[in-house]
Structure prediction request, 631 residues.
Amino acid sequence: MSLAKRLALPDDVLMKVDKAARYIGNEVNAVFKDKESVDIRIAMCFPDVYEIGMSHIGMQILYSMWNERPDTWCERVFCPWPDLFSMMKERGIRLFALESQEELLSFDLVGITLMYEMCYTNILEILDLSGIPLHSKDRGDEYPIVMGGGACTYNPEPIADFFDLFYLGEGEVQYDQILDLYKSHKYSGNYSRNTFLHEAAKIPGVYVPSLYEVSYNPDNTIRAFTPLYPDIPTVIKRQVVTDLDSAPYPKKPVVANVKAVQDRAVIEVQRGCIRGCRFCQAGTTYRPARERNAKTCLNIAKEQLRSTGYDELSLSSLSTSDHKELAVLMDELISFCREENVNISLPSLRIDAFSLDVMEKVQDVKKSSLTFAPEAGSQRLRDVINKGLSVEDIMNGARDAFLLGWNKVKLYFMLGLPTETKEDREDIAHLANEVAALYYETIKKEDRKGRVSVNVSTSFFVPKPFTPFQWYRMFEPGEYLSRAHDVNAAIKSELNHKSITYSWHDAETSVLEGIFALGDRRIAPAIEYAYKKGQIFDAWTDYFNFGIWEEAFEKTGINTDFYISRIKPLDEILPWDFIDCGVSREFLEKEWERAKEGVVTKNCRKGCSLCGCFDMKTGVCVERRDREAVS
Prediction:
């Protein structure tokens, strides 16, 4: 189908905004349907700028899956960049979908992807520009159903007031049932959004916040989380794909009109992770680790490259090195991609001899640096976080890399981890110095390609729900900066400091992320206050204003210390305790105690840790059926 006859934005607006191609649609592989011939219209929204949203695999999966239904047309929506946002507010232009260029008010369902906490005011931007009331309780039958899904749904409470329902888990499992239910209600002749939401709440994985009541103790902790009706569940269970090979995956992904952050074909080779890092929410909420087999991945790669014209292919997962068929897959991909003149990108690889051998074979990889993520400077602290990485692993990987011609290394760490000391921070500098020194020891002077470059970067640890560190605390921004200065001073005292550069993440952004990650329903008024004060795009440094947030919390009577500045007791009811993510509370408590003792837990392939996921009967939990599941 050709470009829509009438663009939602007039020419004079398009001429004034940055990257107008973000707003016109008509991309390669975009799906166009006759709106009169479908029963359900879904506006799938990503609460960030076009280039970020177009890089999100989950959005591409759902777009492709929903549009496979003959009765459904799914269209895409992204947040207007601040320049356009201002003009739309001034002129009263409603937010629109790219494919039809029609307002969101004309849709049945508005789905919003929740991938990171710093997009929360952008959610309100989407609703406000669409003409949809910000609060679910203020929406009548004439308004679309507002749905949320994604990583942040593992604590949806801070934004619960703004959503009609949340879907908890992997969208390939139950979304069809939600759409079928909506369709039956829409064409019943007496549609009621309240009746639909009540029935939707009975679907596994669906959480309807308005149907649950939260009560509090005098000390502000949660007393109880209670369903308002006896026929809806008390606990919402995460939905999990049991067979990735048969799960939907886009073979014709939409190609962005402007250069996206991930401007390449992307194959999700694995979902979940076997490693068990105690700080990592994705490592818990995507358990158990499941793989697509090499043949499936290769077929998807070929179809995506042919349908898009991309000249680069990326393998995506939390830990690609752990894929059992990686060697076979890489041999096939390298052969195919050489013939097609396609580069291969390999993020999430452990830096070991095998990975380096693979990276040596793929095109253009030496143009960039190699990345190691020790996360902590000392072995003691790496054991606390269950990183499963020793100094020997790091140094052997660096040595092999230097011998193969690399001379640029990135080292990622976190500050503010549980039990961290000043000595742990100084060990970051010591480790960076040892890596730099290793280059000069390993490579003869006549063979060196200039000075080695070791780039050290630190972020500030944010406790996340459903991790063993969910009970831990955060610190004030000034304390985090003090810790970063400890690292900086230690680096400057090292012998090879001229070969080391150091940068750190913004402390105030990390603190706000923690408030959202650990907060409850009482946070919502502050989010609304900040939005109405003009706060959007908090994930972008140029637009983040911590002062507005401090004002918002003060004006709405929120004591942020309650959420982030204390270590919670194990018997406290946490805002997300009504969710069953598949990993048991007992396992998380045990891991929290093991962390404080510095005891390492084996990865899933070396031994079952009784996390609770074996009941799902899929992935790594059942890949060795010939022996006892519990060692």
